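Structure first, sequence second, as always.
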């Protein structure tokens, strides 16, 4: 529950009569191990989940500000790879600017031992956290840091593969 965020990748797989054989897709759809009733010759796109986040509110805020023109409306928004490269560069810059140190972190309404970012000033400037309905914590702690690490690692994997297709960002809460 809470802020769920999805980056999907859409592949155009329509086979036209004029498509050369080496560029044609073969699509099989099974249900219960048996062919389904979905007409595979009519499949136009296949959408895959590229990334999923939960309560990574700083990343969500970046998408709202940089892809959605400020509209935080749970809509579906096209994202090109250049935008993903921008986000990757910001995550890398913030992660390289600080380290985690021992400290007290807020979990719900209580304080616990955990880790905080030693210097969160660049994070606050480049990828600020934001609050919202079940958006998670807004502190610059181990949870914020690890969500940026996850984003960096997964974006590096995605961007290393240039296999066509466009991306789409969607959130819900």
């Amino acid at each position: 529950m809470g802020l769920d965020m999805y980056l999907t990748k859409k592949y155009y797989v329509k086979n036209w009569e004029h498509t050369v054989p080496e560029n044609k897709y073969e699509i099989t759809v099974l249900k219960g191990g048996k062919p389904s009733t979905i007409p595979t010759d009519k499949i136009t796109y296949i959408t895959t989940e590229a990334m999923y986040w939960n309560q990574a509110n700083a990343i969500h805020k970046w998408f709202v500000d940089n892809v959605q023109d400020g509209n935080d409306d749970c809509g579906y928004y096209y994202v090109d790879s250049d935008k993903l490269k921008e986000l990757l560069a910001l995550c890398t810059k913030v992660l390289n600017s600080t380290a985690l140190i021992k400290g007290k972190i807020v979990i719900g309404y209580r304080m616990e031992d955990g880790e905080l970012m030693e210097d969160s000033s660049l994070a606050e400037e480049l990828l600020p956290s934001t609050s919202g309905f079940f958006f998670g914590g807004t502190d610059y702690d181990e949870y914020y840091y690890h969500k940026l690490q996850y984003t960096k690692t997964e974006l590096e994997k995605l961007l290393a593969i240039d296999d066509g297709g466009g991306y789409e960002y969607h959130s819900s809460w």
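Margin note: The chain has a mean pLDDT of 94.
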